[in-house]
Amino acid sequence: MESQFPIIQIMNEQGCIVRSEYREQITKELVMTMYRHLIRTRMFDRKCISLQRQGRIGTYVPYEGQEACQVGSALALRDGDWMFPTYRDHGAMMTFGRSLTQTLLYWKGRTEGCIPPEGRKIVPPSVPIATQIPHAAGTAYAEKRKGTKNAVIVYFGDGATSEGDFHEGLNFASVFNVPVVFFNQNNQYAISVPITRQMKSKTIAQKAMAYDIPGIRIDGNDIFVVYFETQQALERARNGRGPTLIEAVTWRYGAHTTSDDPSKYRDQEESKRRRETADPIKRMERFMQQEGWWDEKWANQVQEEASVEIEQAVAEMERYPKANPADMFDYVFAQPTWTIAEQKNAYFQWKRGIEG
Amino acid sequence: MRTAVNTKTLTLVQAVNDALRTMLKEREDVILLGEDIGKNGGVFRATEGLQEEFGEDRVIDTPLSEAGFTGAAIGMAINGLRPVVEIQFLGFIYPAYEQIMTHAARMRARTMGHFTVPMVIRAPYGAGVRAPEIHSDSTEALFTHMPGIKVVCPSTPYDAKGLLIAAIEDPDPVLFLEPMRSYRAFREDVPEGKYTVEIGKGKKLREGGDVTVIAWGAMVPVAVKAAESAEKKGIQADVIDLRTLYPLDKDIIADSVQKTGRTVIVQEAHATGGLANDILAVINDTSFLYQKAPVERVTGFDVPVPFFAYEDDYLPTPQRVLHAIEKAVNF
Predict the structure, then answer these.
(1) Which residues contact B307 (CB under 8 A, 6 or more apart)?
(2) Which reaction does it catalyse (chain A) (predicted)?
């Protein structure tokens, strides 16, 4: 199966283009946009880990190492498309338009973090595994029925393919031939369980065969292949040619969450090695250097701009108005039921009483 | 019940680990299944060291599939094993709901006792630890409502070990809810080796004649704190830790509420359809004429368990319980 589903690259680990047909499409402008997002996404992730350590946000889910998957696929989307992320996909969400402040609010335990940005169809991250996959199939069905050219992208990890919802979602989408891209980030560990213990199949892409849809296996640390393959899958979707399963093979350098210690279940040397050889950002830098597009001053400026944006977002998060407990009651139904109305009333009466 | 004399000072999560180790040693048919329970020792370390000690075929890191491994455990239980499955958080049990509701809970009834499902489903539950969303549910009532499964919820290390061993030995399926807020909150002396705490029996934690306070799991320390504050105001409270949520210990409830005539029930879960209502039914059926005041319930609200920035407002607090105690006493 591995030979039937080889890992496709456009740019190899050394930053060389290995598929010349993409040469012309890889413009300097596109590369600069990608690089800016990659840097911003990585710096944000590192900042969040430090904020968590300082107790300024809650448990945090890092994605470092997976930036090419998230940035590349999100940049392939068009304005009217839908995004169904998991809790590890805020890199993709921010690339597609969710603000940094909102992302921080989410990790600070604030419901406001789930509100979609104006004009963007970004659904709240799914926390239970694979549950968003059937939603994406249904949303795509609705777009098809409305006769639009909008498509849907849904993210999930390697572990998610063991859940029933993954198979049910793919089956539904394939039966009804709906415009959805199933974007798998195979980072090779579901918390502590390696992919070799998760499944006997050697690839995730091969699971597409069961649903008679295209299955593509790509190097998830090559932002070019992520971008162009996602774009092509989205185009097929828009043109009525149905769903695609993309397996982007990648690696998370860090922990599953800030509550997890990966040294308990895997050799951290492997992460160090991958940082050296396969890092998505280093690879992009190698490419830019070879092209003669690398400009140290510009790169410093990119970092500086990201740093300012991140610090502003942190400041905004920290001066955000205090959480209002009324919000917990007010959005359960369009019209509050009598039980909720009574409970809210009694609670605030009591609270006012003790606060004098 | 006790066969051991030596004790160790353990937290609740360590007591769970100790119970599992004890039973893996004691019985060859005991087998553990769940996500990240092997090499990683469980996300809360409840199964730490067990795979190393008992092997990969008895402490199984399963694929990420709650319905799959719960269903597989049912099959194992039908065929002579005693599986103990871990659901990582109670909020992630729902894919397995059908397996539990439709199969684990009614296999005995459907086959007139020819096939049975002696399995345990362990799940950490509850809010108050600043966890990410969906990690903080306390939906015990979905399962107490379910005919054919027992529901157990200890609040102390001693009870956790004794009840878990009893659950593993029970001939029927048991949902074993572990209050994650209490996992490392305190330690107590726990006997080494095997002992059991009887399923279906509550425990009186404090004696007082004025009011009965009933709680379980993570709400037990909240109830005790409230009772301590009440004492300073001259109110003496009986505090009952239910320990088993189905079947309820009818006698311990009736004895106390007949003595006090006033009751406060503390429930972390949403109000509507909650276990407090079943406790109210027990009071109504056994002790109606003894009541001097309406039964007070301090509960979560009929809203999804909120993001953690709001959880202090959602969760019953000692202050809210004290308020209810005073209301019941001053009625």
Answers:
(1) A109, A110, A111, A113, B133
(2) N(6)-[(R)-lipoyl]-L-lysyl-[protein] + pyruvate + H(+) = N(6)-[(R)-S(8)-acetyldihydrolipoyl]-L-lysyl-[protein] + CO2
What's the confidence (pLDDT) of residue A1? 84
Among A88, A256, A283, A286, the active-site one is A256
User: What does the block give as tokens for B96?
Assistant: 């397995």
Are the beta carbons of B306 and A264 separated by less than 8 Å? no
Return the residue of A nearest to B309 by Cα.
Answer: A109
**Chain B interface, Cβ < 8 Å to A:** 35-36, 38-41, 43, 61, 63-68, 91-92, 94-95, 130-135, 271-272, 301-304, 306-311, 313-314, 319-320, 323
Cα-flanking dihedrals φ and ψ of residue B296, to 5°?
Answer: -95, 140
The one-letter amino acid code at A110 reads R
Asked if B131 and A58 come within 8 Å (Cβ–Cβ), the reply is yes
As a whole number of angstroms, the distance between CA B243 and CA B150 comes to: 11
Taking only residues 62 to 101 of chain A, the set having a beta carbon closer than 8 angstroms to any beta carbon of chain B reads 87
Catalytic residue check, A120: no
* Residue A20 CA from chain centroid, whole number: 28
Three-class SS state of A171: helix
Which two tokens mark A188? 């090779």
User: Residues of A with CB below 8 A from B68's CB?
Assistant: 162, 164
- For chain B, say whether A345 makes contact (Cβ under 8 Å): no
Can you give the residue ranges of every domain in chain A? 20-322, 324-356
Q: What does CATH list as the number for A20-322?
A: 3.40.50.970
- Answer for the pair A252, A65: CB distance below 8 angstroms, yes or no: yes
Has residue A356 got a pLDDT over 90? Answer: no
What's the 3-state SS for A100-157? Answer: HHHHHHHHCCCHHHHCCCCCCEECCCECCCCCHHHHHHHHHHHHHHHCCCCCEEEEEE
CA gap B57, B77 in Å, rounded: 15
My answer on whether omega of the bond before B247 falls inside 30° of 0, hence cis, is: yes
Exposed, middle or buried, A238 (CB in 10 Å: 0-12/13-18/19+)?
middle
**10 Å Cβ neighbour count for B270?**
21
ipTM, 2 decimals?
0.93
Residue B68, SS3? helix
H helix and E strand count, chain B: 12, 14
Structural domains of chain B, with CATH: 7-191 (3.40.50.970), 203-329 (3.40.50.920)
Give the N- to C-terminal CA distance of chain B in Å, as an integer: 43
Give A198 to chain B, closest Cα distance, Å.
5
Token code pair at residue A135: 């939603």
Q: Above 60 in pLDDT, residue B222? A: yes
